[in-house]
Amino acid sequence: MGKERSEKEKVGGGEHNKRNMFVSCVVMNSCAAELKLVLTALLVLCSIATLFQILPSRFAISASDLRFCISRITTTTTTTTTTTISPLNSTTTTTTTIAPLNSTTTTIPLTPSPPSAQKDQVADNGVIKRVFNPYGSAAYNFITMGAYRGGHNTFAIIGLASKPLLLYSTPTYQCEWVPESSSASNSTFSTVSYRILPDWGYGRVYTVVVVNCTFSEAVNGENSGGKLFLEASTSGGGDKNLNITDRFEVLNESPGDLNMSLFSSKPKYDYLYCGSPLYGGLSPQRVREWIAYHVRLFGERSHFVIHDAGGVHEEVLEVLKPWMELGYVTLQDVKEQERFDGYYHNQFMVVNDCLHRYKFMAKWMFFFDVDEYIYLPPKNTIKSVLDSLSGYTQFTFEQMPMSSKLCLSADYGRYYRYIHAHSLSSFTLFLFFCTIEFSFILARLVSSSQNYKMGLSLFFFLFQYLCYIYIYI
């Protein structure tokens, strides 16, 4: 009985051991399948990350693009404008109603009453006299941008006027000064002014006009305030039977605001830059290089006036903000001038406005573009060069193309959205290979007990990592 029991225990023990071996094999196979699934997922993720780095930058979607799209959806409005036309030399009333998107309120524009129309007439001799009835207005008579003092008795008014009007007629301009106090001596001044046409050969629908007003005596000498009015007359332009005169305020000086010492005291800046209107897709990297170069060139007593005609987008604004906070840059938004068709984003109007606005604040003023750099001969400074030209009121630069030898030809045509794009791409590639190597290490660890193979794999893994640090970091 004891012998039979021992034989049964041996047989039963063997079957139990076989059952344990079968369960462990099943567990091992299931673990290997899960491990393969995890490794495959890692390889797929790394491959996708590598492909995203290979794609060109034009397929990238930045946060500013998303904000722009969202703002277009949420801030869309409908505008209804109602205009009432009155007879000549009367007041024109304009009513504008802005309704939000999907608004249930419907605004019906009022139909303007047309002017009285004349009819054809038959003369006594049988001749039919035809009548031509005019409607509307082809272009504005004058568009002001700014008006500034040039001294005790002179002013400059910068703006736009109709190019056909100036081409086919002789419009006249007259300035009038009205003091704030009626008790002031000589309560009203008036003088005939003359015009300056800076961009006459380039003007389109509108051309730039600088009106100079010089009075026979000092204006607002008591610093009691007053207003400057401009009268713009067509003088038979367009319709020779009419002489339409528009009178409007261009400058208002409050009592006590006039600082006469501005015209005789030392200017605040040594050098002031008046920039042309910036438009298009400007490169923030190049703007950063340009402003840093010229701030260093001009020094601490310098200032830069930048005009935005649509080119100062979010990235360029981030470049200019630190310089604005330090007091080196003033940014002006001039996108509104795009309503009036002029030459090159009305460049001549913008730079003339900057000239008359800041001419008493700087010793020298510069006018050039952001794709141009001032170059000084060796052993010279901007001060030494300008001191040698102190006997002149203005000078021009000799324009020369920049040598291509100063640029790195290997980077020609390559623009990176981010500074570390190359490092990010190489790092993703490194992670891809490291994932493959690590998968081999895990596979050998699971399927083999030969420790020297695992150690060799770990050595190659660490070697690749050290090579990456040496090359890219």
Provide an overview of this structure.
There is one protein chain. The protein is 35% helix and 22% strand. With 473 residues, the protein is α+β, with helices and mostly antiparallel strands. It starts with a helix and ends with a helix.
Topology:
Blueprint: H1 2-54, H2 63-74, E1 77-84, E2 93-100, E3 121-122, E4 128-129, E5 142-149, E6 154-162, H3 163-168, E7 172-179, E8 189-192, E9 194-196, E10 206-214, E11 226-233, E12 245-253, E13 269-278, H4 284-298, E14 302-308, H5 314-325, E15 329-333, H6 347-358, E16 362-366, H7 382-387, H8 421-447, H9 451-472
In short, what is this structure?
The protein is α+β, with helices and mostly antiparallel strands.
Count helical runs.
9
* Distance between the first and last residues' Cα: 79 Å
Radius of gyration: 39 Å
Helix content: 25-40%
The biggest beta sheet reads: 4 strands, antiparallel
The string of secondary-structure elements, in order, is HHEEEEEEHEEEEEEEHEHEHEHHH
Which range does the strand content fall in?
15-25%
Overall pLDDT score: 76
Q: What would you call the structural class?
A: alpha+beta
Q: Count the strands?
A: 16
Strand order of the largest sheet: 5-6-10-9
Shape: extended
Low-confidence stretches: 1-11, 22-29, 73-106, 415-424
Key structural traits:
single chain, four-stranded antiparallel sheet, alpha+beta, 473 residues
